[in-house]
Amino acid sequence: xxxxxxxxxxxxxxxxxxxxxxxxxxxxxxxxxxxxxxxxxxxxxxxxxxxxxxxxxxxxxxxxxxxxxxxxxxxxxxxxxxxxxxxxxxxxxxxxxxxxxxxxxxxxxxxxxxxxxxxxxxxxxxxxxxxxxxxxxxxxxxxxxxxxxxxxxxxxxxxxxxxxxxxxxxxxxxxxxxxxxxxxxxxxxxxxxxxxxxxxxxxxxxxxxxxxxxxxxxxxxxxxxxxxxxxxxxxxxxxxxxxxxxxxxxxxxxxxxxxxxxxxxxxxxxxxxxxxxxxxxxxxxxxxxxxxxxxxxxxxxxxxxxxxxxxxxxxxxxxxxxxxxxxxxxxxxxxxxxxxxxxxxxxxxxxxxxxxxxxxxxxxxxxxxxxxxxxxxxxxxxxxxxxxxxxxxxxxxxxxxxxxxxxxxxxxxxxxxxxxxxxxxxxxxxxxxxxxxxxxxxxxxxxxxxxxxxxxxxxxxxxxxxxxxxxxxxxxxxxxxxxxxxxxxxxxxxxxxxxx
Length: 500
Ligand SMILES: [Zn+2]
What we know:
Layout lengths: L2 H28 L6 H19 L2 H12 L6 H18 L3 H24 L2 H22 L5 H9 L5 H25 L6 H4 L4 H15 L6 E5 L5 E5 L2 E6 L6 H19 L16 H15 L3 H14 L1 H4 L4 H8 L16 H16 L8 H13 L24 H21 L2 H6 L3 H11 L9 H9 L6 H15 L5
Parallel strand pairs: 1-3
Antiparallel strand pairs: 2-3
The protein binds zinc ion (ZN).
């Protein structure tokens, strides 16, 4: 057996463990009864331990490092597999085992403390954990790459090749172009939420409508399924098994509709990856940012467009006649694109959303530049909320404590959310040059759009980097001006047309 074949055999064994752990975690997040967890956690920790040993065994390390040094006889795809394996190996292998153990304990504790602290709005309670996590993240980044800025090491984990320098450029554009624009829109927005938005929509009918949407978007039931969970998410082991969830809120039907379209975007991406990658480590979406670009594309560019509802509003209206019979398509379209200041990131609309991410990016950057002490973080947070969204934070639960990410050690993650939206706009303008997007959406021909995305983005899985994908599909490097252009065009038309 060649070294490469031996490497593949060991990877296959790891994949078998990943499949089992993955299915268990899907079940934990959807249907598992509450009482099962103590037993389950203990059993799964054994499987995880075995998996970790496989990932770091001497035999595996030797093969990966050896192949990495001698790649000349490998094919292009094989080279990519080895490079990817080497990168993953370095992530776990360069950190002393005692630090790995201590860190994982810390994160477990910290998440529990964060939950309580958030409930009580008590930052002081979470502060000591946050401080330790930050110290740990800096230490781990040093182990992994002593010559690199620690925040760059973390940013690269969530979006390959993204750096402080590139994000600075992006967020400067957001700050200079979008912050003043958002202020202008907020000054003329309607104050009252239209009543059809918060009316009661029976759950079973919501579910029927989500199933209708799955057909509209061409979800392949042979390769996936839909369930319910508290937080909507998409899960997959490979291109032939892609599942997603939604949550039905009776007094907020648009939560389930747009979460479903968002998750459908993630799911279609995974279902459309070429199955030749199933047995490789390139089998999933290219990156967090590219994945989010696809979910946002389906949710916002398609799902929140007027053309989409020209095709599907009659169906929705007939299913929910008491709630919608007196709501015109125009009012409906404005209602689902309503802009408002919110404290909470996950409740923010498409336009104000990037400002929530801007705040988090600026704070993370300060943390890793040693410019902000944990004592001062709430004050910094609140100041930025005032500056960008004109809101006075009165409860830390609605401020610095609202997100789970920092308590879980996920620093460097937030920027990919805004990046995904920005990628989606750049991809959208590239698509407009080749497809009659408006007509396709209006005529319910989503298949043609799916096919375009498959050929240009989805089919490659992880075999191309985010940078390579963008270049291939748009002919350019990442350029945030498209995002600004998209938001300005859409929201000027919605809010400023008759006023300018
Ligand atoms: Zn998403």
